[in-house]
Design brief:
Layout: E1 14-17, H1 21-32, E2 38-41, E3 57-58, H2 65-85, E4 96-100, H3 103-118, E5 124-126, H4 128-134, E6 145-149, E7 153-154, H5 157-170, E8 174-176, E9 181-187, E10 190-196, E11 199-202, E12 205-208, H6 214-219, E13 228-237, E14 249-252, E15 257-262, E16 265-270, E17 277-278, H7 296-309, E18 318-328, E19 335-338, E20 345-349, H8 355-372, H9 394-406, H10 430-435, E21 438-443, E22 446-452, H11 471-483, E23 485-489, E24 494-499, H12 503-510, E25 522-528, E26 534-544, E27 547-552, H13 557-566, E28 575-578, E29 583-589, H14 593-600, E30 615-620, E31 623-628, E32 637-643, H15 647-658, E33 663-666, H16 668-678, H17 713-720, E34 726-733, E35 745-748, E36 751-762, E37 767-775, H18 782-787, E38 790-794, E39 797-804, E40 809-810, E41 815-816
Parallel strand pairs: 1-2, 1-12, 2-8, 4-14, 12-20, 23-33
Antiparallel strand pairs: 3-7, 4-6, 5-6, 9-10, 10-11, 13-16, 13-17, 13-18, 14-15, 15-16, 19-20, 21-22, 23-29, 24-27, 24-28, 25-26, 26-27, 29-32, 30-31, 31-32, 34-37, 34-39, 35-36, 35-38, 36-37, 38-39, 40-41
Bound molecules: flavin-adenine dinucleotide (FAD).
Length: about 800
């Protein structure tokens, strides 16, 4: 029998690994939720990882509403934590300044101010002089303007972490230091316990909050945590005359640097474009409360920028240059949630140098996720299930994470694509599409054509906040789809097979729509969680009595697979298999699609033989193609799922037959414009776990009228008894000089009621289109929705817009409703 040292339990409800800010915050919030039997294990001492050497800036605004809410919650928490725990935190709400030094950056900052307003944060715009009044030591000769977020602040990272630990202990959490976790036991796909240096602890939940060690710790449970350690430096000066304790934090993104007050002096750090990865062969044993050697040569580039901003630096003594490693991820967002690889294996790591700002809210969200078994809200941007195959390769992860580190402060351009680690996954058409002028974007490692350069054009995005260089080319692709036909390579779609005698029963439980229809049927459906939120949005084709083919978006491969697999009711005989790589997908869309297809297949593709929402096997040359009659662009069309080895020949046949019908290659930017006109929702922006089908206008795709039980049904029934409090609506704005990008604030009769979830230009209806939820606590009926006067705030300016009923474009009616 194993004996445990005093204080080391044999069992626990949950074991948290890591005593940095994230582990301590998770422990604190689990205790708040009433979980007492929680153990936090720290291999060395609390705060001894990245936390002890953080600069401590606490900013709040992110590009996603819920992640901003998490950071906002951190501020609320830090504001009262000292009072609650008796442990000082060094929290100061001095506000945060952000400078803009050129017109494009000023546009970005003004758009951020609107985003902040959309998300309920007040961000003021200041002139250069007003900014200087708040931060007198800076030179503002190049400053165009600034934004000020009065509720941003700074904190002492170690103290706030110790306060969270104290609060957690008070709530019953046991914290054990000098106790490394050496193994995580997983049995039958679920966590069973951990082995520490001092013995075994049986538990069903492990929370990996191991910071830059999280990747290593993840592998103990077979869980991939894609992050790398990168050196990050900041300088601490001696006291400077004129620096007040109340000085706001300052971010100067055009110079890639940030500042905060510390003991009458300044802390200055930044994000250099050529970051240095650390510990590529593993983090050295015994690395605790440790720093790396200062690298003045590397820091010089930031120092030069800082001198230009704060000339007083020239004569100021430097106390020290801190060089600390921190974890960075391939998309700049942190990693949260239950891992798809093992039930009960949770992760909270990869904080990209904003773990102090994020720690409070992330710990709360993670605790709620653990207790509730589902994310407490839509946390998709940070959800561990957003990763996929390329993220298994540490080389790929390193390249992309370093690129993102270098872009921490650079302009976040609309439609921006990243360059590193490409190409990684390509469809069989890649070479042909490249030769045809494709400008590719990347998703989950896949190269996907965004648009096609026309004769003489460079297949390269030129970014700006105005209309970008691809605007006209995408217009042509859009019109081809509306007026003739367009061919889209959608091979990156995730594709699954659900097979087994109980496959229909399992999917009947998981799907909100009725999928138990005859072989040959194709059903568009959502999959809901127990609150009625939309977890997946996909199509299900019945191949046989006991086999279904499921197609979903490229980026949702891991998430949707995991959602479906985990929700197969116990005891049902159904297996889910990922068949993504077996099929290339060519989507042939447009009024001439049938003319083209009938020329290259002997099979009957008439409306009678092959109606909408059906799938058929058809022959094209030597290929047996699974043709799905469905559309995301609002035109007659087929998704042709072609065995990969036949993809190129089918593509060539389509192109040859399509020539006389005006068939054009088209890309994802055209799809976006087409689907906006037709009112099709996009998961991850218009719809997601925060929205139910009735709120999203998708009630028609739910089988509530049947008696069939399904996941989420009860929540929808309960929702039916109450008025809806938010509804997705379509807005148009005619001025072509305004560019809608999403996140613009919606005003109804002068009051803020929501923000745009997605937006773009509709080339057929020739107007800006935006979708967004209109919210009203007292309920929303048609009268409320359609009777208001609406405006959109775009880059802080209000512009009148119109609310529209239904889709703007309908090919059957051949009419445009505006
Ligand atoms: C120079 C620098 C400046 C920064 N400035 C800021 C800032 O201004 N604002 C901001 O918000 N963020 C900032 N950060 C980022 C911030 O420090 C981190 O994001 C944050 O501390 C991460 O906290 P964590 O709990 O995830 O990780 P950590 O603090 O690293 O904690 C992880 C813990 O896990 C423990 N552990 C690892 N393996 C095991 C194991 N097997 N068993 C048990 N325990 C284990 C480690 O010992 C460690 O204590 C900065 C970072 C650096 C490097």
């Amino acid at each position: 029998m194993t004996t445990h040292p005093p204080g080391h339990p044999a069992t626990a409800r949950a074991v948290i690994i890591g005593g940095g800010i994230v582990g301590c915050s998770t422990a604190f919030h689990l205790a708040k939720l009433g979980w007492r039997d929680v153990v936090l294990l720290e291999r060395a001492k609390l705060t001894s990882g990245s936390t002890f050497h953080a600069a401590g800036l606490v900013g709040q605004l992110r590009s996603n509403a819920n992640i901003t809410q998490l950071l906002k919650y951190s501020v609320e928490l830090y504001d009262k934590l000292e009072e609650e725990t008796g442990q000082a935190t060094g929290w100061k709400m001095n506000g945060g300044l952000r400078l803009a030094c050129n017109e494009e950056r000023w546009t970005e900052v003004r758009r951020q101010a609107t985003t902040a307003r959309s998300f309920g944060l007040e961000m003021e715009l200041l002139s250069a002089k007003e900014a200087q009044d708040l931060w007198p030591l800076m030179d503002v000769s190049d400053v165009v303007g600034a934004a000020f977020l009065p509720t941003d602040g700074q904190v002492n990272p170690s103290d706030v972490t110790l306060a969270l630990a104290k609060g957690a202990r008070k709530g019953g959490v046991r914290i054990i230091e000098d106790c490394p976790v050496e193994a995580i036991h997983v049995r039958d796909g679920r966590v069973a316990g951990v082995r520490t240096a001092h013995g075994e602890i049986a538990c069903e939940i492990v929370v990996n909050c191991a910071g830059q060690w999280a990747r290593e710790v993840g592998t103990l449970a077979g869980v991939n945590v894609p992050l790398i350690a990168v050196q990050h430096q900041y300088m601490v000066t001696e006291a400077i005359d004129g620096i007040e304790r109340t000085l706001p934090t300052l971010r100067d993104p055009d110079r890639l640097i940030y500042f905060k007050e510390e003991v009458g002096g300044l802390v200055m750090g930044g994000y250099e474009p050529n970051p240095i990865p650390w510990a590529q062969d593993g983090i050295p044993e015994g690395f605790a409360f440790s720093l790396l050697d200062p690298d003045w040569d590397h820091f010089e580039q930031l120092m030069t920028q800082a001198l230009a901003r704060v000339p007083a630096f020239e004569h100021v003594g430097v106390k020290e240059l801190i060089n600390g490693p921190e974890s960075f991820t391939p998309d700049g967002n942190f990693i949260l949630g239950e891992a798809p690889e093992a039930k009960g294996a949770y992760v909270g790591a990869g904080f990209n140098a904003y773990g102090i700002a994020g720690g409070g809210g992330a710990g709360k969200a993670l605790a709620e996720w653990i207790v509730g078994g589902e994310p407490p809200m839509d946390l998709w941007p940070v959800d561990i299930r957003r990763f996929g195959r390329p993220h298994r390769s540490i080389d790929w992860v390193r390249k992309r994470s370093l690129e993102l580190y270098g872009k921490h402060y650079t302009m976040a351009w609309p439609h921006e694509e990243h360059a590193s680690g490409r190409p990684e996954r390509v469809s069989p058409l890649y070479g042909a599409l490249k030769a045809a002028g494709a400008c590719f974007g990347e998703k989950l490692g896949w190269e996907r054509p965004n648009w096609f350069a026309r004769n003489g054009e460079d297949a390269k995005d030129v970014y700006s906040y105005g209309r970008q260089n691809w605007f006209a080319a995408v217009g042509e692709e859009h019109r081809a789809a509306r007026e003739a036909a367009a061919l889209f390579d959608q091979s990156s779609f995730a594709k699954f097979l659900m097979v087994g005698p109980d496959a229909a029963a399992a999917l009947t439980w998981i799907c909100a729509n009725d999928i138990d229809r005859p072989v040959g049927s194709l059903v568009y459906t959502q999959m809901l969680d127990s609150s009625g939120g939309i977890q997946c949005d996909l199509t299900v084709a019945r191949l046989r009595e006991d086999a279904f083919y499921i197609v979903t978006g490229t980026g949702f491969a891991t998430h949707d697979f995991s959602w479906i697999e985990r929700n197969i009711p116990d005891g049902l005989r159904a297996e889910l298999v990922d068949v993504t790589s077996a099929f290339a997908t060519l989507s042939l869309m447009g009024p001439r699609a049938r003319d083209i297809l009938s020329q290259i297949t002997p099979d009957d593709v008439s409306n009678e033989a092959f109606p909408f929402a059906k799938w058929r096997e058809i022959a094209i040359g030597g290929a047996i193609v699974r043709a799905l009659r469905i559309t995301y662009v609002g035109e007659l069309g087929w998704e042709l799922h072609v065995p990969t080895e036949h993809a190129l020949s089918v593509y060539q046949r389509l192109l040859a037959a399509g020539k006389e019908h005006g068939l054009a290659n088209a890309g994802y930017r055209a799809i976006e414009s087409l689907r906006l006109e037709k009112g099709y929702r996009a998961w991850g922006s218009d719809i997601g776990p925060d929205h139910s089908p009735p709120e999203a206008g998708l009630g028609w795709a739910v089988k509530l009228k049947t008696n069939l039980p399904f996941l989420g049904r009860e929540a929808l029934m309960a929702q039916k008894a109450e008025p809806l409090r938010k509804r997705l609506a379509c807005f148009t704005l005619d001025d072509p000089n305004v560019v809608l990008l999403g996140r613009e604030t919606i005003y109804r009769n002068g009051e803020r009621v929501g923000w745009l979830t997605s937006a773009g230009w509709g080339y057929t209806v020739e107007t800006n289109i935006g979708y967004g939820y209109v919210r009203n606590g007292a309920g929303i009926d048609d009268a409320y929705l359609y009777d208001g006067d609406y405006e959109l705030e775009v880059a802080t300016e209000r512009v009148p817009c119109r609310i529209q009923r239904g889709a703007l474009y309908d090919p059957k009616m051949q009419k445009v409703k505006i």
